[in-house]
Specification:
Layout lengths: L1 E2 L2 H9 L8 E3 L13 E2 L1 H4 L9 H7 L4 E3 L3 H18 L3 E5 L2 E4 L8 H16 L3 E5 L3 H8 L7 E3 L3 H8 L12 H9 L5 H5 L3 H8 L1 H11 L16 E11 L2 H21 L4 E10 L4 E12 L2 H12 L9 E9 L4
Parallel strand pairs: 2-4, 7-8
Antiparallel strand pairs: 1-7, 2-3, 5-6, 9-12, 10-11, 10-12
Helix pairs in contact: 4-5, 10-11, 12-13
The structure holds thymidine-5'-triphosphate and magnesium ion.
Length: about 325
């Protein structure tokens, strides 16, 4: 989720007379003084005004635009309301910036359209402003999708075919982690789109960009991204983890261990009189690479069966092929009495 023209939208909300006018937020709000544009309303963008442009340039492009100073305090207050709404939809939220967040809605038993409608409705009711939402199998795709139909957009990218049809035609620059320098080098290699990038053999990319970044580009251009949501520390969670004496490669050993951890966790939360809504599985491989997979349930539970089953569903989202596991953990959050 990414808010539309966020600072400008907040200003237009508290000063309705500004609506529909070109509005530019930046610096002290005086375009004759030094300072850059923080953001411009969509009306102002029609004149070519954009973030990071000097205020003076913006003023030249559109002298009749309304220039306002940045009021972080107010934008942070509105941002807090929005993040609270998102957490109410699913507690697995990564807070990315003042107007942006990732939400893990796996297991919410609702369609992207239903979830999106609910989020947009609640945010509009509480703040009067609109946002754009992108759905995807991972953060990389969701982020790109959120930007594809602004403002008040909803873009759902779920299948391989969607990635080929809708992500591949985009300029390579739209890929997270591709900045202007990489873009220029890619152009020199005749690579313009994400699809062009995806068609390059890995060897070519690693020769040009090194193994690590080459690997990233290779995977990202195919829509592959395993990075977990970085959620905030939650004081109320119950977890258990265990490190194997010898790294485990056997699925049965892994499954038995997860079941054992789920049993301990469920016993613990029951004893404390809690029920939880989100189950997170943590897997650390023998190379110390660690990932988490979380699922949020429709209702709170303290049932061993449910926690175990949900942890197993998380396990299904982990690629174990050819890997050995060093550590496993099960955590339950979203606790309520
Ligand atoms: P963005 O989400 O990048 O921009 P936006 O919300 O204004 O517009 P869009 O509809 O395209 O998402 O950034 C969020 C806020 O962060 C933005 O309102 C102002 C601030 N910001 C800056 O202060 N400087 C910058 O260079 C950028 C890009 C944003
Ligand atoms: Mg935004």
């Amino acid at each position: 989720m990414d808010m539309d023209a966020f600072f400008a939208a907040v200003e237009e909300q508290r000063r309705p007379e500004l609506r529909g006018l070109p509005v530019v937020i930046g610096g002290s709000g005086d375009p004759t003084k030094r300072g850059v544009v923080s953001t411009a309303s969509y009306e102002a963008r029609k004149y070519g005004i954009h973030s990071a442009m000097p205020l003076k340039t913006a003023h030249k492009l559109c002298p009749r635009a309304v220039f306002l100073p940045v009021d972080y305090e107010e934008y942070s207050r509105v941002s807090g309301i929005i993040k609270g709404i998102l957490r109410g939809i699913s507690p697995v939220m990564e807070d990315v910036g003042i107007d942006e967040a990732f939400l893990d809605v796996t297991g919410l038993n609702a369609t992207p359209e239903e979830i999106s409608t609910e989020i947009k409705k609640r945010i509009l009711e509480a703040t009067g402003i609109t946002c754009s939402i992108g759905f995807g199998p991972n953060k990389l795709i969701a982020k790109i999708a959120s930007d594809m139909q602004k403002p008040d957009g909803l873009t759902v990218i779920t299948t391989e075919q969607d990635i080929e049809d809708r992500i591949w035609p985009l300029p390579a620059r739209k890929l997270w982690g591709v900045g202007p320098k990489t873009e220029a080098r890619l152009k020199g290699m005749g690579i313009d789109t994400i699809g062009d990038l995806a068609s390059l053999p890995y060897d070519r990319l690693s020769a040009e960009f090194g193994e690590s970044y080459g690997h990233f580009l290779h995977e990202a251009s195919r829509g592959v991204d395993d990075s977990p949501l970085v959620t905030q520390w939650e004081p109320r969670s119950v977890s258990r983890e265990t490190t194997f004496e010898v790294d485990a490669g056997n699925w049965q050993t892994i499954a038995r261990t997860i079941a054992g951890l789920a049993k301990e966790v469920s016993g613990d939360i029951r004893q404390r009189g809690y029920k939880g809504r989100t189950v997170t599985l943590k897997v650390r491989f023998s190379d110390f690479k660690t990932l988490t997979r979380a699922m949020t349930l429709g209702e709170h539970t303290d049932s061993y069966e449910t926690i175990r089953r949900t942890a197993f569903q998380c396990l299904q989202k982990v690629d174990l092929a050819g890997k050995r596991v060093r550590l496993l953990g099960v955590r339950v959050t979203g606790l309520a009495h």
